[in-house]
């Protein structure tokens, strides 16, 4: 991006990159946001086939319990509070409703810090 952006007259509006609590990519997000570009999460819930551990993570479970929410709702709220667009994939009607129900609670700075500590730079896919 640092080589590409100076060469173009029309900036990309949005960049999609793998982002979930085990692969947070914070520096990249800050860089892209700093250039006025929207960031969207690719694999916002860890991605199909890679979710068993993430969706049972004890830290996320503890935060979810505190807020009376599910782990998935905590992850989606975390994306929202980092200004990252998240469009989770689902073919399950109950999951889709659950995934929309994230606007009545807020993660505290402490919650956000605990989730930040889960980063392991664990990328689940390459393209
Ligand atoms: N650019 C690319 O090449 C590319 C490639 C892959 C993905 N993406 C992007 O990433 C996003 C989605 O990717 P993805 O669907 O592969 O990964 P994902 O959103 O990280 O995970 C989808 C999985 O999460 C499950 N899920 C969704 N809501 C749930 C809930 N409330 N509780 C439990 N499980 C839940 C789904 O199962 P159910 O169906 O059972 O709910 C599905 O198996 C899209 O925005 C897409 O554009 C982009």
The amount of beta strand, in percent, is: 5-15%
* CATH A-level architecture: Alpha-Beta Barrel
Structural class: alpha/beta
Total strand count, please? 3
Q: How many angstroms separate the termini?
A: 17 Å
Oligomer: single chain
H/E order of the elements? EHEHHEHH
Overall 3D form = globular
Biggest sheet: strand arrangement? 1-2-3
The number of helical segments is 5
Report the radius of gyration as a whole number of Å: 15 Å
Summarize the structure.
By secondary structure, the protein is of the alpha/beta class. Helix content is 36%, strand content 10%. The structure holds NADP nicotinamide-adenine-dinucleotide phosphate.
Structure commentary:
The structure is a single chain. It contains five helices and three strands; from the N terminus they run βαβααβαα. With 127 residues, the chain is of the alpha/beta class. It has one domain (5-116): TIM Barrel. It has a three-stranded parallel sheet. The longest helix is centred in the middle third of the chain and has 11 residues, at 71-81. The radius of gyration is 15 Å and the shape is globular. Bound molecules: NADP nicotinamide-adenine-dinucleotide phosphate (NAP). NADP nicotinamide-adenine-dinucleotide phosphate (NAP) is lined by residues 16, 42-48, 51, 72, 87-92, 95, 98-99, 127.
